[in-house]
Structure formats: C-alpha cells, structure tokens
Design goal:
Length: 363
C-alpha cells in the first residue's frame, strides 16, 4: 500500500494493524511503550555532555562490567533503566531480558503480568556514544509459551522465528523507529516538535544485489578459512572472481550499519572470530560463537531484514532457526542483500564440503 498523503503516526499505524487483526491490543500497547521509552532515551542521548551522560558507569571497584564482560557506559545503564521502568506497570509483559542484565527481570508483583516477553539491547554501539556517532536500541518480542509463568530464563529460549515483533530505534541525525510485526518492515521518523513517530517508509525493501560490505577488517587474522576466501574475493574487485568492485563501510553500531542496509542494500558481517570464540564464556564451536548476541541483536535484526526481502545467516544456517541454549548466546551474523548473503554462505558450504579455494574461485 502506498504511503497516504495524510501523515500517519505510529499510533494510527498500530491501530490500523490491530483492525486488520495483525496485532492485538496488548502488543499494540507494548510497542507504544517501547517507542515512548526510546523517545526518553533519544532525549538523554541528544543532551550529550550537557546531560552528564557520557563516559563509563561507575561500579563497586572502578568500571562497572556487565554480563557480556564489557565495561558499561553511563548511557547503557540509563537506557536499560528507562526500558525497565517504562515496561513494568502496563500489564502487557511477563518479564524482560536485557543484554545488560545477567538474569531476566520479572514484572514486579505490584503490577499485573501479561503474556509477552521483551528482550532488548538498550544501547547498541556504545563505543560510539562519546564520539557523537549514531547509536540505537534494539528490541524483540516473544509470546509466553504454554502455561509457563514466563519469569524464568527457559521461557526466553525460543528461536527467532517465534518473534511476534522486532525493531530498533536509531538515534542519529534524525531519530527513527524501524518496526516489524511480521507484515513488512516499516520506518517512522520522530517529529521532535510534536513528539510523535510518523510513518516515513512503508514496506522498506533491500535490493537483492549489492556492491557494499560492512565488516571490522581489523579482525581478519582471526577469521576462519572461508571468511578469508570470501573477503579476499570481495577485495579483488572487478579483476577477481566476483567480477565487480566493492565499497566498504563500518560504523561499529549495528543499528546504523543495518539501517544503511535497509535503506540502500549491502551485507553486514560479524563472523566467528577465533579471538572471541576462545573466550571461556563463549561457545567455541565455530558454527555458533561470535561477538553479537543472538537474542538481543541477531534475531530482531534478522526478522527486520527478512521482512524487507533480505536474508540472514550464521554463514551456514538461517539465524532465525537457531534454538538458543542460553540467554546471552552469541552467533556469527551475515545479513542484508539476499544474493550477497547467499554468496557468503556458499563459501562456507564449499569449505565444509572440502572444496579447495582454487576450485572455488573457478566455480
Ligand atoms: P553494544 O554496544 O551493544 O555492545 O554492541 C556493539 C556491537 C555492534 O553494535 C557493532 O556492530 C559491533 O559491536 C562493533 O564491534 P567492533 O567494536 O568489533 O567494531
Ligand atoms: Mn549491541
Ligand atoms: Mn548494548
């Protein structure tokens, strides 16, 4: 459906989705509440140094370290608190899980509990906060399975295909909410004067082909063989087996890199990395480990990308089919333009089949 001439707010969009029976009232409320929390985070991010929100959060002994083993920024903590507080009392959720918290957060007994589970990366790209580069919030919504109370970790361990909604808010030159409830991926821009998210991109589509890739090249020496081969062939450009020149971008905020891909195509890769996979808290199986978190980053972004006609893979299998075994599980990520993701996956499959690089190059 084309974007109508009358501006459509997020509220109107969600009411129309409910009328079409694509979402129920509780999910509509949940998304509205997450969007409101994102507006609060956008204000904090926008104040920068004036709001005293830059820099690292203080812990008991020096820097505060989260469950991921990473030093928390003040805004990681602020964004996490905003999302928890906003979602505690609405009656639509059973529990939340966050990249910043070791255990799930059950809705306090003082409030009614609903049937949804909310997972989030409260502040994605936190290394960019202090240098005034785009950051964001990523979220994923699951149903509470069966008769479970849904306040325990086990309730969250569902594959990405079970998500009923997913989205992110990007705090960039403009603040945007990008959302899917399983019926396309849609972009809303925050009208700062009105305080409303307005529909600006209905049915975002990712072109199948691309000439642009996003990867942290500094990790190259830690990658496995098929990744080395794939990127070598990208860099070889027109003279190489791919027969075309590629451009590279790396913002180091997944939200910003994925937003570019949803806007003009590309492939985003955070592959398995020997350095990260060797860490004791990670799964050292190369088909599973990586930097990015399956449930807070890879699953919601994969749903958004697939709903926009793109593809998303671990390099060997569809990300949304992965069944998590723990809440903070990590996964290699290849997502974006469909034909390019398939090309990268092909390098991995051929490697696993024992086909040598020279033969692959001729294939
Ligand atoms: P977070 O700030 O939530 O920890 O996520 C950072 C992630 C992701 O946003 C980004 O793509 C990637 O880490 C950047 O990794 P490098 O520091 O290796 O570039
Ligand atoms: Mn992140
Ligand atoms: Mn984060």
């Amino acid at each position: 459906m084309p974007t109508p001439a009358t501006p459509v707010s997020l509220t109107r969009f969600l009411i129309e989705e409910q009328r079409e029976q694509r979402i129920n009232a509780d999910l509509r409320l949940l998304i509205e509440v997450v969007a409101r929390a994102c507006k609060t985070i956008a204000v904090a991010v926008g104040k920068g140094a004036l709001g005293g929100v830059l820099g690292e959060a203080a812990g008991a002994q020096g820097a505060s370290i989260n469950i991921q083993g990473e030093a928390q920024k003040k805004l990681d903590v602020i964004a996490n608190d905003v999302l928890l507080e906003a979602n505690a009392w609405g009656g639509h959720l059973a529990a939340c899980a966050s990249e910043e918290m070791e255990e799930p957060f059950p809705i306090p007994d003082a409030y009614p509990r609903g049937n949804y589970l909310l997972l989030f990366d409260p502040l994605d790209g936190s290394s960019n906060i202090d240098v005034n580069v785009s950051v964001g919030t990523i979220f994923s919504v699951l149903d509470c399975p069966g008769d479970a109370q849904c306040v325990d970790t086990q309730s969250f361990l569902q594959p990405g295909t079970a998500q009923v909604a997913a989205g992110y808010c990007i705090y960039g030159p403009s603040t945007m909410l990008v959302l899917t409830t399983g019926h396309g991926t849609h972009g809303f821009t925050l009208d700062r004067e009105q305080g409303s998210f307005m529909l600006t991109q209905r049915e975002m589509r990712i072109p199948a082909e691309t000439r642009e890739f996003a990867i942290n090249m500094s990790n190259q020496r830690h990658w496995e063989a098929p990744m080395q081969d794939y990127v070598r062939d990208l860099l070889a450009g027109r003279e190489g087996p791919r027969g075309k020149d590629f451009n590279m971008r790396w913002i180091a905020s997944m939200v910003a890199d994925v937003h570019r891909i949803l806007t003009r195509g590309g492939i985003f890769i955070y592959p398995w990395d020997r350095k990260l996979g060797a860490r004791p808290q990670d799964n050292t199986d190369p088909t599973r480990a990586g930097k990015l978190r399956l449930m807070y980053e890879a699953n919601p972004m994969s749903m958004l990308v697939e709903q926009a006609g793109g593809a998303s893979s671990t390099g060997r299998a569809r990300i949304l089919d992965q069944v998590p075994s723990h809440l903070h599980e990590r996964v290699p990520v290849f997502l974006g333009s469909k034909a390019e993701v398939e090309a990268a996956v092909q390098y991995h499959h051929q490697f696993d089949a024992g086909i040598q690089p020279e033969v692959r190059a001729q294939a």
